[in-house]
Amino acid sequence: MKKIDQPVIVKIAKIIDESPVYKTFVFDYPLNARPGQYVMLWLPKVDAKPFSIAWQTSDQFGLAAIKIGPYTEKLFACQKGDLLGILGPYGTSYNFSGDLPAGLSADEAGEAGKKILIIGGGSGVASVTFLAQKAREENIKVDFVLAAKAKDQLIYEDWLKKLGINVYHRFQEGGAEHAWDIFKNLAEKNNYDGLYGCGPELLLKKLVDFSLAKNIFCQVSLERYMKCGIGVCGSCCMDPLGICLCEQGPVVNNHLANQLTEFGKYHRDGAGQKVYFNQ
């Protein structure tokens, strides 16, 4: 039987305006999460929604949010000192070496980890900033490509640079497409031990295809409609394997992603209807 977690009540320690449209909500709590994992953030009397962990310290963690609907409108109305609930951390995580991601054998995993290349686009940036933080803590060199449609959606650039990370960015309409050109150029000119990404799915499809063709260790974080976070409701299942992304994701390796026939083609909305990506 599935264990139903109860929310842990946490206090908002700080709210950081990252840009005109993004905020980071900082909570006082020793989360002990792994890069790529997420929490369900519960607003009392409203709802609970999944958020990737943008960074963490021994006693705090940060969640990045953009105001895009009724839930985030309520979240953006919260103030320092307000009490919210968290469930988790949940899901799979990125890895450099040692611990294996879902679906990858020890032989396939190899020695990923000495120098890595990361791409983060849109709201997906938060998932991979935590990865970059962890990599630097392990003395791994990091090149990071940031993608956004506009300058006011470009976040964490200064924070990443303070960690000693080489940051490349592209902000314009079609930013992910142009950022991919930068990413691919870097990947072809450098001998990276691993490629990582989170962002628009068509961008991640290019990343997975590229990594498989070049035989480079790769992990991506996928997004689907998540309701429960514990693999019960099935709203985040992916065809044809039926994996629940809330438990067997969101981070998957390139081999597993390549087995998901809907990857890069369509996703499902809250009612379970297929919504095709614009090719």
Describe this structure in words.
[2Fe-2S] cluster binds at residues 228, 233, 236, 246. Keywords: 2Fe-2S, Iron, Iron-sulfur, Metal-binding. This is FAD-binding FR-type domain-containing protein. 25% of the residues lie in helices and 33% in strands. It is globular. The strands form four sheets. Strands 1-2-5-4-3-6 form a six-stranded antiparallel beta barrel. The chain has helices at 70-76, 106-109, 125-137, 157-162, 175-189, 201-214, 245-248, 254-259, and strands at residues 8-17, 22-28, 38-43, 47-56, 60-66, 83-90, 115-121, 141-148, 166-171, 194-198, 218-221, 237-238, 243-244, 251-253, 266-268, 274-276. It is built from eight helices and 16 strands. The protein has two domains: 8-90, Beta Barrel (Elongation Factor Tu (Ef-tu), domain 3), CATH 2.40.30; 106-276, Rossmann fold (3-Layer(aba) Sandwich). The longest helix is centred in the middle third of the chain and has 15 residues, at 175-189.
Helix-strand category:
alpha+beta
| CATH homologous group name of the largest domain | Nucleotide-binding domain of ferredoxin-NADP reductase (FNR) module
Identify the quaternary structure here.
single chain
CATH architecture of the largest domain: 3-Layer(aba) Sandwich
Gap from first CA to last CA: 41 Å
The total strand number stands at: 16
CATH class of the largest domain: Alpha Beta
Number of helices: 8
Strand content: 25-35%
How helix-rich are the residues, as a percent range? Answer: 10-25%
Strand order, biggest sheet? 1-2-5-4-3-6
**H/E element sequence:** EEEEEHEHEHEHEHEHEEEHEHEE
Largest sheet: 6 strands, antiparallel, barrel
Label the overall shape. Answer: globular
Rg (CA only)? 18 Å
Pfam families: DHODB_Fe-S_bind
GO biological process, one term: pyrimidine nucleotide biosynthetic process
Protein name: FAD-binding FR-type domain-containing protein
Keywords: 2Fe-2S, Iron, Iron-sulfur, Metal-binding
